[in-house]
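Holo model, pyridoxal-5'-phosphate. Inputs:
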Amino acid sequence: MSFAEIADSFFKPAVQDLVPYEPGKPVEEVQRELGLERVVKLASNEGPFGPFPAALEAIEREARGLNRYPDGGAWRLRTALAELHDVRFEEIAPGAGSDGVVDYLSQLALDPGDEIVCGWPSFPSYVIDALKLGAVPRRVPLRDHRYDLDAMLEAIGPKTKLVYVCHPNNPTGTMNTRSELDMFLDQVPGHVLTVLDQAYYEYIDDPEYVDGLEYLKAGRKVVVLRTFSKIYGLAGLRVGYAVGPAELVTAIGKVRRAFDVNSFAQAAALASLDAPDELARRRAANAVGLVQLEGIMREHGLEPSPSVANFLFAEVGEDSRPLFEQLLREGVIVRPTGGFGAPGAIRVTVGTAEENSLFSEALERVLSAAVQP
Ligand SMILES: Cc1ncc(COP(=O)(O)O)c(C=O)c1O
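Output:
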């Protein structure tokens, strides 16, 4: 009997019905498929700049020691992050991307039938990782493209274990204010852990945007997620972390695979922490790029939601895939957001000024072709 014959009964139902996360298309594949010389990827919210120079040097140094397993405890990285955030070493949990941390949180908390609450459209891993374990995701519709924290409070029940606040939300780029979050955390029932996902934290310069660590330090029941994938330019290495209560960090250590955060990732992340000027330069470049991209979208009749991150989200009709395909043929990869719960929208990541202009030209060609008889 072949495996195909037993496949239906072999997989647990929670996995059988799962729709996997659909990653953004790689540039090389699009180039090859469509025979294009230049392809611009504005699809995965990566930073347009590479790793910091110190990170590249650290990777080179680390290469010589690759016969050794990584430091399973990520001792140096945890120490540096604890110092950076003025928290205890025991409160830092590195992971294989912050996506890895979402997986750890799900594994350590969710039994079949347990529930999570998150906004929707939002980051799909919250939902996928819960479903994998037979847990039930309660997806609360956004209001005006923002997390509706009042409605989320109503969705919390006795079986809820984790509540995700995607802050700012991917794919819409929107945030909640300090007073909204204060009120929310005042009312979240005691048995629930709130996950403040701040993957885009370093880009944001809005006085109303709260650093989730403030809540942790004030003794609220929260865990804060951060990543090196965005402004630090290390998405390919897969390294992020949680800052949370020591007991939670200990439990993460039980479910994480011993060597999830590889040697390059640890070394490059560590080396990236000492470059405040470069961080500020990238934050400023993103702010300029965000304005440029917003202008481009508006010029073409799109209405992006108010983003504080490094991407913009806009509704384009019932189904955004045709626009995605047309832009692809013009050499620009954007993200159709069906997998995030918004099948009629696209998300466009801020690129360099040149990349943003190429997006503008591609959009121009696609839209003018659409109006021709
Ligand atoms: C809101 C949010 N959380 C987490 C992640 C995962 O990032 P990574 O696993 O690369 O750290 C992303 C990536 O796009 C994101 O948008």
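Residues 45, 97-99, 123, 166, 170, 197, 199, 227, 229, 235, 240 surround pyridoxal-5'-phosphate (CB under 6 Å). The chain has 15 helices and twelve strands.
Archived with the compound record.
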